[in-house]
Amino acid sequence: xxxxxxxxxxxxxxxxxxxxxxxxxxxxxxxxxxxxxxxxxxxxxxxxxxxxxxxxxxxxxxxxxxxxxxxxxxxxxxxxxxxxxxxxxxxxxxxxxxxxxxxxxxxxxxxxxxxxxxxxxxxxxxxxxxxxxxxxxxxxxxxxxxxxxxxxxxxxxxxxxxxxxxxxxxxxxxxxxxxxxxxxxxxxxxxxxxxxxxx
Length: 199
Hints:
By secondary structure, this protein is of the alpha+beta class. It folds into 2 domains: about 1-100, 3-Layer(bba) Sandwich (FAD/NAD(P)-binding domain); about 115-195, FAD/NAD(P)-binding domain (3-Layer(bba) Sandwich), CATH 3.50.50. About 25% of the residues lie in helices and about 15% in strands. It is built from 5 helices and 6 strands, in the order αβαβββββααα. It has helices spanning about 1-15, 50-55, 115-125, 150-155, 160-180, and strands at about 20-25, 55-60, 60-70, 75-85, 90, 100. Strands 3, 4, 5 and 6 form a 4-stranded antiparallel β-sheet that branches. Strands 1-2 form a two-stranded parallel ribbon. The protein starts with a helix and ends in a 21-residue tail after the last helix. About 15% of the residues are buried.
């Protein structure tokens, strides 16, 4: 689900997929704001993006149990089951398994932040209050020679930002190592999307 899932759906259609199935482990969100999310809370609502309008099947409460392969190590199907809630946890419901034929599986999982413990212990890097890696205006973390781009330094965002930041960080690394760079630097770490700038 989410923006990344929608991007995968749209891309799969543009790449000529014969069929597309979008599996979401959670319940289908409501179409209208529930009473449990009064204003000014941002409600979780069922969305139909332009990618969803291109076609495909959307299945909610679907737990992926297993990837099934052929003799040469290629995926041939997914084994999925209905999701049930047990003691507040989402688990595959026994006896509901089925197979979905697949030639390609794209995994679009929610971003929960960089793995903090190892980075702090091994590199003594610092994190912001948002749980992302602190960095300077040249993508460098608080540990010299460590550079941070994409979701790890920006927070949960779109893949286009990660690609642009990766290119800019590569230029910063080149400058760090060589003293200068000719690589493109499409964005700065402080750039934000035009529609999201504060008033």
